[in-house]
Amino acid sequence: MSGLDALPPLREVIGAQNLTARKSLGQNFLLDLNLTGRIAREAGPLAGRDVLEIGPGPGGLTRALLAEGAAHVLAIERDDRFLPALADIDAASGGRLIVEPADALAADEPALLARHGLTPPVTIVANLPYNVGTALLVKWLTEPRWPAWFSSMTLMFQREVAMRIVAGPGAEFGRLSVLAQWRTRPRILFDVNPRAFLPPPSIVSSVVRLDVIPDPAPAPVKALEAVTAAAFGQRRKMLRASLRTLGRDPLPILAACGIEPTLRAEQLPVAGFLALANAYAD
Ligand code: SAM
Predict the structure, then answer these.
(1) CA of 38 to the centre of ligand 1 (A)
(2) Is the CB of 29 under 6 A from ligand 1?
(3) H or E element at residue 157
(4) 10 Å Cβ neighbour count for 7?
């Protein structure tokens, strides 16, 4: 039996240390070993790779990442109550778990990786807290340098958010779809029943894997964020109206990009947004 297999069952750890889930921190724990193992396998291959995990909590997914052979797991956790349970996992894994007690939204990941001697690009894997999942994904997708410090992200989202990430033009298409599909290849791996979590959330979740495209079509990130915010901020309006909030007459810019001014944001493919971002940045 390896050190990790000898750890007490998660349910026991949660009970003994009184780790009741806090709603304010989006805490819904995964206790099913088949499921955590499946997420770790589908995020892989992890053997010999360094992994960044956000929100390890009591460490169910963390155990699976280490069991899959990750060289190191750097885990950022905001709730200090989990530190003793995570220290036990570190000891059982032969010192392969590094825990950073911090808010992931404010974290400087490249600096953290360097401080712990981990070599980018790393693999990101997380059962994200629902209240910060989208903000974290946007933070990573809008990194100023690309390719960034990670090569893939395997993340749990509410199914509705997962559908938006992979959506093509249409009702579910939005800012998240454009950013994700510009710089990564996103796909939904599988859905997760609410009953798999403790406590069960009210919605179905999906695991999404996003593989980094090392050489995406060039576009200025800030301008792309501004254009998508303006266009989808008033998604029922035609682009000739919604883009006015950017402060310049949209008509000549749309014409220069070969885009019909009567289109609505949800009808414009990703390439159209990239063209607009380049035109607005000029
Ligand atoms: N990974 C564990 C699992 O799968 O059982 C816990 C997942 S739970 C959905 C989300 C975790 O993220 C919790 O442990 C919570 O404390 C942590 N968390 C919430 N907000 C955070 C933040 N801003 N930065 C870092 N961790 C955060």
Answers:
(1) 19
(2) yes
(3) strand 150-158
(4) 18
3-class DSSP state for residue 140?
A: helix
Q: How far is the CA of 282 from the centre of ligand 1 (A)?
A: 41
Per-residue confidence band for 1, with pLDDT thresholds at 50, 70 and 90: very low
Give the length of the chain. Answer: 282
Residue ID of nearest Cα to ligand 1 atom 8 = 27
Q: Is the peptide bond before 121 cis (omega within 30 degrees of 0)?
A: yes
**C-alpha distances in Å from residue 42, one per residue of 46, 155, 250:** 9, 11, 44
Query: In angstroms, rounded to a whole number, what is the distance separating the alpha carbons of residues 81 and 265?
Result: 44
Are 7 and 89 a contacting pair, CB within 8 Å?
yes
Which atom in ligand 1 lies closest to the alpha carbon of residue 131? 20
Backbone angles phi, psi at 204, to 5 degrees: -80, 145
Angle, CA 102 vertex, CA 67 and CA 83 arms, to 5°: 50
Domain ranges of the chain: 3-212, 221-281
Confidence of residue 282 (pLDDT cuts 50, 70, 90): confident
Contact 201, 189 (CB under 8 A): no
Q: State in words which class domain 3-212 has.
A: alpha beta
| CATH number for region 221-281 | 1.10.8.100
Q: Is the CB of 12 under 6 A from ligand 1?
A: no
Equal CATH topology for 3-212 and 221-281: no
Residue minimizing CA distance to atom 10 of ligand 1: 129
**Sorting pLDDT into bands at 50, 70 and 90, what band is 255?**
very high
